[in-house]
Amino acid sequence: MSEIEIEIDGNLVKASQGDSIISIADREGIDVPRFCYHKKLSVAANCRMCLVDVEGIPKAQPACSTPAANGMKINTKNDKAKFAQKAVMEFLLINHPLDCPICDQGGECELQDVAMEYGSDVSKFNLGKRIVPDKGIGALIQTDMTRCIHCTRCVRFGAEVAGIVEMGGTGRGEDVKIEPFLTEGIQSELSGNMIDVCPVGALTSKPFRYEARTWQMNAVQSVARHDLVGSNIFTQSYRGKVKRVVARDNDSINETWISDRDRFSYEGLNHESRALKPKVKIDGQWQETDWQEALQFAVDGIKNNAKNPDQLGVLASKHSSLEEFYLMQKLARKFGTENIDFRLDQSQLSIGSSLESSITLKEIESIDHALIIGSYTRLEQPMINHRIRKAALDGASVNSINSKNFDFNFKTKCDALTSPQKLFSTLQSILKAILLKTKKDIPNDLSKVSPSEIHNAIADDLITSKNGVIVFGEHLNSNPNSLAITNLIAKIALTTNLKIANLTLSGNSHSAEKVNFIPSGKGMNAMSMLNDNSKAFILMDVDCEFDFINSKLASDCFNREDVFVVALSSYDGNASQSNADVILPMASFYESSGTHINFDGLVQSYRASVKSPGDSKPAWKIIKVMADLLDLEGFDYVDSSQVKDEALQSSKAQYSLNEANIQSVDDSQVTTHWQYAPYATDNVTRRAKALQESNIGMIDRAYLSKMTAQKIGLSDDDLYLGVPISIEESVAEDYVFVHTNQARKA
Fold first, then answer.
1. 1 and 18 in contact (C-beta within 8 Å)?
2. N vs C: which end of the chain shows fewer Cβ within 10 Å?
3. Strand order in the sheet with 671-676
4. How far apart are CA 327 and CA 332, in angstroms?
């Protein structure tokens, strides 16, 4: 765009042709009042609060929708502009309730702030104010729609960012109401951002309702650790408890949005099952004790049971911090064991199964094509899905290969249904189609493969893409041929010169890989440890009911009489108590300093937002003292920053994509994929009350086709592995997709 020069409030400034007046004013630090305008949403120009005087135009013009032109002279503060702005303010306040003292938006309300400068202390309106009855929109957002000023930010956010049109305006004139279309409430995984964009108290946080005033809270910059993005956030606390989490702007990571999982999971910190004191199990009975006795009991149990270092297994949650991963693997290796792993939810754990991403978050927005394999990105990685959606809105095409057709919030061009046992052969067909179309040699293993019409269509899009990406996700973790599938994806990407986005490892898995929290040499992986004759385990933030791909195997192993289990845990619920011999209460999310490495490899450190409750301690301190009691050297750390600095010097293990043996799978057998609902993926979110009461939190369904249902003798309203079934034709044959908030039964 060509450069122009305009005059604004007497100052000459340069701008680009077509820039709006309000964007130029913001850049120059000139305050223009507004309600409907938001930098990340389309321009609506319906509140009229940003009216300014443009020389040569009789009427005041909305700054948000008026493009700047060369030589334009603009006044934002003269009498004409002020009169127009005050008139709009008067109309906005006609029906607004006088309930600021009890409104949760008080102290951070845009209407309050603007009214202080542009409002009047005398109203000309003496009739009764209108009242708008509220319609519940779910467990996360509190509505007080009498306060609504019809800015439509929430409506535009839903349509443009969340990708689900769930709110809209009905009525005319004074009878206009912003309300949900459906009685089920808001369904979006990003719905909490409506709270942030609302300029008044019409939409506020339901879990935060009447908890504290904004000026009473202490805000700390932090990082959300539930997915691969590491969204930037502020945690706001009052009297030592986290009361609210809000988004922190960072365009390269999360822009100005965060997922509901990041926003509302803090409720789990105050759950009744928090582990507050160390406990030891003596003669089958739990006894509270002090830290010194509990740590000595734990160390003695490890020494007495793991007489050979190889008999000790060390397992950790993928949501642990970099510092925790580093110190725990260091303790294990100093003790003499290589039995270390964080990949508890994977069926095939060969080192070669790791394929690094070759695209950044920002680059995803500029792709022209995406092929999604084995992933429901919208619920599993909502902020990465948001980037894919932005690319799709800009014209990128999207194809998917899944075992179920998912409700993406963008249009897909081609959806290939493939059961897990047929995914490898499906990718072989696509690779052969690519090789045939590009006139390249066909290897012997593809000689008998015959690409179908849909495989050819997917191949065509991959070949013609100039800047595409292959996205593969968590569904591959439970596939018995995951290593071979990963290798095949790498070959397809190499042949078509496409980039890769590996979403199989979520949480803080990149930190675990950075410090080599995986077995090397003769060390055993997670599944091998559970099947082997291990005599002692150290578990860090691990929940046996949810975290393992085979929870029954894990529970049976840990409950053996000859196995001693030390659990570093933030919670001492039934599962922890039944499986452990010692519970060492550790600080949870937001209660300890640490480091997260995100999808881009960006290292983000954070400090504790609040003190951990009771006698719980940061995990890195617990590990340090355990190492001292085990007489291990090299644990002389004063604070976590020393641990971080040492950890970041680690040399990440180099992965090689070796050829994998293909598991022989009977195509006629029914396979099951157990996928946890998005709010059942870590210990904190599982205990966040509002999230669990939301529509997404209550996901509890087993999906299968009519043919598969007949094959295994099921009909509507039956249960499959304890989960109610839905018979749909959008599911691959010989396959059951279990999407649930329940713990795995087997």
1. yes
2. N
3. 671-676, 735-740, 701-704, 723-727, 719-720
4. 9
